[in-house]
C-alpha cells in the first residue's frame, strides 16, 4: 500500500477520534457485553437465563432470533448454535423474536464494511476494526444483511447457550449437593455420574440464580450438530401453507391499501381528484400520505386508496386522477448517466483503495514492458425483483402502533414507524414475519413509513399496504450502474508487470445512511470498489481506485452489492490477460495465487470436479472472494444462434467451518440462479426520468427450464464461519462470459451478456 493512500485512509477512518484522548481511552475499554439484555426476553411462560436463552416449563429451549428469515435458513442455523452448546435436539428449540436491544446488533456487518484489503494484517486495521466493533455494539443496529448472520452470531449465541448450560448444571449440582464436575448434559437433561437425571424444565427456576462458574465453549471435535447437515425447520410450514409471510398477515378488521407513486424519480403530488375512486365498490378513503413521510424515506410521495379488498384498492388507485410535479429529473436518461460516469472517470483520480509497487514507473514503459492491454466494462442498474411483493401491515390506535412487516431492519422499522405516527419508539410493537425474498431491498423501510402514514387515517383499523409488481420494479432502490477501466502491462513471457483499475459509480452507503440514519454523505465507500481492490491475485505493481459519482437514481444494497458487478469486471479482465499472455485461464490464475493456498485449493477443486465439457460446449472459470468466503465456479455453456445457454455450474466453496452443509448448498444454488438472471437479462434503464421496466415480461428472471444443474463442493475447514448468502452470486457472470469467449471469440464487456 502506498504512503499517500495509507495516510488518507488513516485520516478518513481516524476522523472518529476527534475527541482525542477521550476516544482513545474509550477505545481500549472492554466492548459492551452481548449476553444480557436490557429488555426481558419474551419467553411465553418460560424463564430467561440470559438475553438469548429461556427455558419453558416443558423443557423446551426458547432462543431469541434477531435475524430475519428470508430463505437463507437462519431459523435453522442460528438455533443450531445454541442447541449444540446446550446439548438439546434441534427439535426441542423454539424460536422467539428478539426484542429491540443492543445485544442483538449486527457487529460483524459493520466491521466487514471497513475498506481494508483482506491481506492487511497491520496495526491500523486491527485498531480500527476493534473500535468499529465497539461502535457497532453501542449502535446496536439489528440488521440482516452482508451474509453476516452466522458470522456475527458464532460467538454470542454459543456463549449464551454454554452459559445457560453451565447455570443448569450448577442448579442440578446444588439440588443434589454434588460437585458440578461430576455432572454432564445430554438430550435436554443434566446427568450425574451416579445415574441421577433431571430435565432442564425442572431446573429453570433454580438456574436463574445459579452461578455458572467457568463457561467453556465446545471444540469442533465435540460438535454433534454443527458441521452436520440438518433439514430446514421452515420447510414443513412452507409446504403446507401455514407459514406466515408479510402478505399473509390478517389482524381482525384489516383493510387494504394500494398506492400511486410518482412515475418520475423524485416527483411529488401536485393535485389529486379522488371522486371517481370514492364511488367504486369497497373503497373507504383516498389518502395523500406524502406530508406524513420523513424527507429521507426511499419511495417517497404518493397517494393511496384504502378499501375492503386489495383488488378494490388497486382498481380504485388506478382510477385516481393525479397530477405530478415531475421535478428536476423529468428528462433524465440512461445515456445521461452513462455520460456522467465516463466524464467523471476521465476527470477525477478517485480514491485509491489499494496500491502496491510503483505504477507510475510501469506506466512510463519500464524496461521489459512489451504489451499493454486495456479494456472498459459496464454494468447497469438492477432491481431486486423479490417474489413476495413489497408490503407492510400497520395499525395506529390510541397512541400505539402495531406493525407486521417482512423487514431486514427491525430497528429502522421501529424508528420510522414511531416518527411517522408521532409516538415514542417504546409505543411501537413490531412483528417480523417471514420474508418472501429480501436480497437487500427490505433493508430499506420506505414501505413501512408509507403503511403507517396511511394507517393513521384509517380510524384505528389495521391496513395492509401492498405494492403491485409494477410499483416494485419502478420504485426500487437499485444496484448502481458502474463503469470500470483496466490497463495492464505484460513482459515478453506474459507476466503482468503493472495492473491499473479505476471505476466509477454511485455510493449505496452514502444514500442508505442518509435515508435511514440521517447521516451526511462523505468518505470512501467500500462497496463501490469491493471485488476489485481486495482480490488475492499477485501483481508486483497495482493500483485500484474508484470515483464516487452521486446518483440521481435511488440506490440500495443488492445481493452481493459491489461484488456483483466488480467480480464480472475483474474476472473477465483476468481472462483477457491470460489470453494476451498466451496462457490457459486456469493456469494463469494458479500462477497469481501462489501466495494464497486456500484460494488455489478452491480453484483446483472446482476445476477437477468439472472435468471436461460436453461436445459443443465450453467451460468458463471465475474465482472470487466476498463476505469472507472464497468461491470458484466453472460454468458449462453453449451458444445456439444468439442464445447463451448455461447447462451446469460447479461451485467450490471455502466458507470456513460449515455450520450446516445443507444450507450452504441451498444458498449456492440460489445465488447461482439469482446471478444468472442478472447476467443474462437483468437491466434497468431510465428514460424521461422514468424506469422503463415494469414487470417480469421486460425484467425477466431465470425460468425453471433455463436453470442449470448446480453442484456444490464444500471444502473442509476449521476457520471461523464466514458468509454464504451472497458469495456464489458474483462469479457466475464472468464464468459464463469467459466460456462465451472460448466458443465465439467475442469478449462481452457489458452486462447483461448478449450476442
Automatic annotation (TrEMBL):
<dbReference type="InterPro" id="IPR008274">
    <property type="entry name" value="AldOxase/xan_DH_MoCoBD1"/>
</dbReference>
<dbReference type="InterPro" id="IPR052516">
    <property type="entry name" value="N-heterocyclic_Hydroxylase"/>
</dbReference>
<dbReference type="InterPro" id="IPR046867">
    <property type="entry name" value="AldOxase/xan_DH_MoCoBD2"/>
</dbReference>
<protein>
    <submittedName>
        <fullName>Xanthine dehydrogenase family protein molybdopterin-binding subunit</fullName>
    </submittedName>
</protein>
<dbReference type="Pfam" id="PF20256">
    <property type="entry name" value="MoCoBD_2"/>
</dbReference>
<dbReference type="InterPro" id="IPR012368">
    <property type="entry name" value="OxRdtase_Mopterin-bd_su_IorB"/>
</dbReference>
<keyword id="KW-1133">Transmembrane helix</keyword>
<dbReference type="InterPro" id="IPR037165">
    <property type="entry name" value="AldOxase/xan_DH_Mopterin-bd_sf"/>
</dbReference>
<keyword id="KW-0812">Transmembrane</keyword>
<feature type="transmembrane region" description="Helical">
    <location>
        <begin position="12"/>
        <end position="29"/>
    </location>
</feature>
<dbReference type="InterPro" id="IPR006311">
    <property type="entry name" value="TAT_signal"/>
</dbReference>
<feature type="domain" description="Aldehyde oxidase/xanthine dehydrogenase a/b hammerhead">
    <location>
        <begin position="240"/>
        <end position="328"/>
    </location>
</feature>
<dbReference type="InterPro" id="IPR000674">
    <property type="entry name" value="Ald_Oxase/Xan_DH_a/b"/>
</dbReference>
<keyword id="KW-0472">Membrane</keyword>
<dbReference type="GO" id="GO:0016491">
    <property type="term" value="F:oxidoreductase activity"/>
</dbReference>
<dbReference type="Pfam" id="PF02738">
    <property type="entry name" value="MoCoBD_1"/>
</dbReference>
Amino acid at each position: 500500500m502506498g504512503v499517500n493512500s495509507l495516510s488518507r485512509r488513516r485520516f478518513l477512518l481516524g476522523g472518529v477520534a476527534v475527541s482525542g484522548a477521550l476516544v482513545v481511552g474509550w477505545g481500549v475499554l472492554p466492548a459492551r457485553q452481548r449476553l444480557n439484555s436490557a429488555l426481558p426476553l419474551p419467553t411465553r411462560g418460560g424463564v430467561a437465563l440470559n438475553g438469548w436463552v429461556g427455558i419453558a416449563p416443558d423443557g423446551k429451549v426458547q432462543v431469541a432470533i434477531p435475524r430475519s428469515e428470508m430463505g437463507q435458513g437462519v431459523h435453522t442455523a442460528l438455533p443450531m448454535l445454541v442447541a449444540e452448546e446446550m446439548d438439546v435436539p434441534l427439535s426441542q428449540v423454539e424460536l422467539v423474536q428478539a426484542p429491540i436491544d443492543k445485544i442483538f446488533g449486527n457487529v460483524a456487518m459493520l466491521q466487514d464494511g471497513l475498506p481494508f484489503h483482506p491481506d492487511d494484517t497491520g496495526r491500523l486495521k486491527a485498531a480500527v476494526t476493534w473500535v468499529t466493533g465497539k461502535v457497532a455494539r453501542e449502535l446496536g443496529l439489528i440488521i440482516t444483511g452482508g451474509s453476516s448472520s452466522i458470522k456475527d452470531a458464532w460467538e454470542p449465541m454459543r456463549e449464551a447457550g454454554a452459559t445457560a448450560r453451565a447455570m443448569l448444571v450448577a442448579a442440578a449440582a446444588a439440588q443434589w449437593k454434588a460437585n458440578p464436575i461430576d455432572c454432564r448434559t445430554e438430550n435436554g437433561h443434566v446427568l450425574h455420574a451416579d445415574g441421577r437425571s433431571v430435565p432442564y424444565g425442572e431446573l429453570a427456576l433454580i438456574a436463574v440464580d445459579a452461578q455458572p462458574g467457568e463457561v467453556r465453549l465446545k471444540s469442533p471435535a465435540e460438535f454433534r450438530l454443527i458441521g452436520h447437515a440438518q433439514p430446514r425447520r421452515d420447510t414443513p410450514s412452507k409446504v403446507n401453507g401455514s407459514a406466515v409471510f408479510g402478505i399473509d398477515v390478517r389482524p381482525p378488521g384489516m383493510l387494504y391499501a394500494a398506492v400511486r407513486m410518482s412515475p418520475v424519480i423524485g416527483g411529488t403530488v401536485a393535485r389529486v381528484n379522488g371522486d371517481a375512486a370514492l364511488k367504486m365498490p369497497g373503497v373507504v378513503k383516498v389518502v395523500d400520505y406524502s406530508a406524513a413521510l420523513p424527507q429521507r424515506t426511499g419511495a417517497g410521495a404518493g397517494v393511496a386508496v384504502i378499501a375492503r379488498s386489495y383488488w378494490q384498492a388497486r382498481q380504485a388507485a388506478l382510477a385516481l386522477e393525479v397530477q405530478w410535479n415531475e421535478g428536476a429529473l423529468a428528462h433524465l436518461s440512461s445515456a445521461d448517466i452513462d455520460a456522467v460516469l465516463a466524464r467523471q472517470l476521465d476527470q477525477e483520480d478517485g480514491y485509491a483503495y489499494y496500491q502496491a509497487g510503483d505504477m507510475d514507473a510501469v506506466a512510463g514503459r519500464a524496461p521489459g514492458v512489451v504489451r499493454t492491454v486495456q479494456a472498459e466494462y459496464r454494468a447497469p442498474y438492477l432491481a431486486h425483483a423479490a417474489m413476495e411483493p413489497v408490503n407492510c401491515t400497520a395499525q395506529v390506535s390510541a397512541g400505539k402502533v402495531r406493525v407486521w412487516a417482512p423487514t431486514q431492519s427491525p430497528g429502522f422499522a421501529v424508528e420510522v414507524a414511531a416518527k411517522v405516527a408521532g409516538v415514542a419508539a417504546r409505543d411501537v410493537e413490531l412483528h417480523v414475519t417471514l420474508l418472501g425474498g429480501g436480497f437487500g431491498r427490505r433493508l430499506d423501510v420506505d414501505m413501512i413509513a408509507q403503511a403507517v402514514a396511511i394507517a393513521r387515517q384509517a380510524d384505528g383499523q389495521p391496513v395492509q399496504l401492498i405494492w403491485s409488481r409494477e410499483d416494485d420494479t419502478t420504485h426500487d432502490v437499485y444496484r448502481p450502474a458502474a463503469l470500470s477501466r483496466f490497463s495492464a502491462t505484460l513482459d515478453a513471457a506474459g507476466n503482468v508487470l503493472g495492473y491499473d483499475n479505476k471505476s466509477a459509480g454511485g455510493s449505496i452507503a452514502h444514500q442508505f445512511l442518509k435515508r435511514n440514519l440521517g447521516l451526511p454523505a462523505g468518505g470512501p465507500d467500500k462497496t463501490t470498489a469491493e471485488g476489485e481492490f481486495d482480490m488475492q491475485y499477485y501483481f508486483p505493481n497495482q493500483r485500484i481506485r474508484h470515483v464516487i459519482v452521486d446518483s440521481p437514481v435511488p440506490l440500495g444494497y443488492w445481493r452481493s452489492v459491489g461484488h456483483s458487478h466488480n467480480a464480472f469486471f475483474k474476472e473477465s479482465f483476468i481472462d483477457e490477460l491470460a489470453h494476451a499472455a498466451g496462457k490457459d485461464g486456469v493456469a494463469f490464475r494458479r500462477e497469481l495465487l501462489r501466495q494464497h493456498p486456500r484460494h488455489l485449493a478452491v480453484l483446483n477443486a472446482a476445476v477437477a470436479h468439472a472435468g471436461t465439457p460436453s461436445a459443443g460446449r465450453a467451460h468458463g472459470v471465475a474465482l472470487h472472494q466476498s463476505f469472507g468466503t472464497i468461491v470458484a465456479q466453472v460454468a458449462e455453456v453453449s451458444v445456439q444462434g444468439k442464445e447463451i445457454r448455461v447447462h451446469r455450474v460447479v461451485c467450490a466453496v471455502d466458507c470456513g467451518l460449515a455450520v450446516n452443509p445443507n444450507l450452504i448448498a441451498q444458498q449456492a444454488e440460489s445465488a447461482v440462479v439469482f446471478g444468472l438472471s442478472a447476467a443474462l437479462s437483468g437491466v434497468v434503464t431510465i428514460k424521461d426520468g422514468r424506469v422503463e421496466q415494469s414487470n417480469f415480461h421486460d425484467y425477466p428472471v431465470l425460468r425453471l427450464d433455463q436453470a442449470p444443474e448446480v453442484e456444490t463442493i464444500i471444502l473442509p475447514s476449521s476457520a471461523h464461519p464466514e458468509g454464504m448468502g451472497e458469495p456464489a452470486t458474483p462469479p457466475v457472470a464472468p464464468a459464463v462470459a469467459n466460456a462465451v469467449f472460448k466458443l465465439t471469440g467475442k469478449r462481452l464487456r457489458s452486462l447483461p451478456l448478449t450476442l
